[in-house]
Specification:
Keywords: Glycosyltransferase, Transferase. The protein is α/β, with parallel strands linked by helices. It contains 10 helices and 10 strands. The chain has a 5-stranded mixed β-sheet. Strand 8, helix 8 and strand 9 form a beta-alpha-beta unit. Helix 3 packs across helix 5. The chain is elongated, with a radius of gyration of 23 Å. The two termini are 36 Å apart.
Length: 297
């Protein structure tokens, strides 16, 4: 992610400061703990006396002409703004009111709306006064940061605006598909008119995990024939499988991991359960957003 973000930073002549965050595989990271990083950023804005700052997550793509778009947006952005969403995750955003007037007399496709329920925090800006306000309000949190921000917005406790359509979109960067559904708007993935990743030659990859982060195939060690057939199928369909070793019903040590009292389950059924359980553990350990689990038959 870092390397591709550096490529976009250079391509767009931007300057990023990379801020460390809590690992997504930290099982003890509760909403309040995960929000700790946001508090640090808000505090940094105040400490450096920045007039405003753009806060980004690392799985994003930019409109290629975002700089010219933002010049236009800043011309109409009210001086008392405190939050500005450059990306969001709600199809209803912008449908509850009229856009702010723009100097191009409605010719620009990018409109500025008073925020409704923007959700997601992959691309939003905060003013100095907004950072001060959020530091005071975001304490003792019980929900994810994007929901807490939305609650403050819907309570009319902060001045927030949203750019529609988004000029920054969430996407999957790294070895995963860059955009799970190219050309299709979903809850958190919006198509950009001119993708920066696309301009860099990092085209939308063929979706080789069917829209999930990963595909597991639970494979019995003694059924190499099944694996070979599935490898041929995966190659033909351009899919990416991880073959996960199944727990055998003959492996007494493995079966002892599952303590089942007064169970009517057969050893083969317990082995199947354990195989799936180990896949769940792998999903958590790798921090996958989702995974498709297949058996080899």
């Amino acid at each position: 992610k870092y390397e591709k973000l550096k490529l976009m930073e250079n391509e767009l002549s931007l300057t990023f400061e990379f801020f460390p965050t809590i690992s997504q595989i930290n099982s003890e990271s509760q909403p309040s703990q995960k929000t700790y990083i946001n508090h640090n950023i808000y505090q940094s804005i105040v400490n450096h006396n920045y007039r405003s700052a753009l806060i980004l997550e690392d799985s994003i793509d930019f409109e290629f002409n975002i700089k010219s778009i933002m010049v236009d947006i800043h011309r109409i952005l009210p001086p008392n703004w405190e939050i500005l969403y450059l990306g969001h995750c709600n199809n209803w955003e912008g449908k509850s009111g009229e856009p702010l007037p723009d100097y191009k007399h409605g010719q620009s496709i990018y409109k500025l709306f008073i925020s409704y329920r923007p959700y997601c925090t992959h691309a939003y800006a905060v003013s100095h006064s907004g950072a001060l306000k959020l530091l005071k309000k975001l304490v003792n949190l019980t929900a994810p940061i994007d929901l807490e921000l939305t609650n403050i917005i819907t309570a009319n406790e902060i001045n927030s605006y949203t750019i529609i359509p988004p000029v920054i979109s969430r996407c999957h960067i790294s070895d995963e598909p860059i955009n799970l559904y190219p050309g299709r708007d979903t809850l958190d993935l919006y198509s950009l008119n001119h993708s920066t990743l696309h301009s860099l030659g990092l085209n939308y990859e063929l979706n080789n995990t069917l829209g999930f982060s990963h595909i597991y195939v639970i494979n019995l060690i003694n059924r190499q024939d099944r694996r070979e057939k599935l490898e041929i199928l995966a190659k033909k369909l351009n899919l990416k499988f991880e073959f996960f070793p199944a727990v055998s019903q003959d492996d007494e040590n493995e079966l002892k991991e599952l303590e089942v009292k007064n169970s009517i389950l057969k050893p083969s059924q317990i082995a199947c359960y354990l195989s799936h359980y180990k896949v769940y553990q792998s999903i958590i350990q790798h921090g996958y957003d989702s995974a498709l689990i297949l058996e080899d038959d």
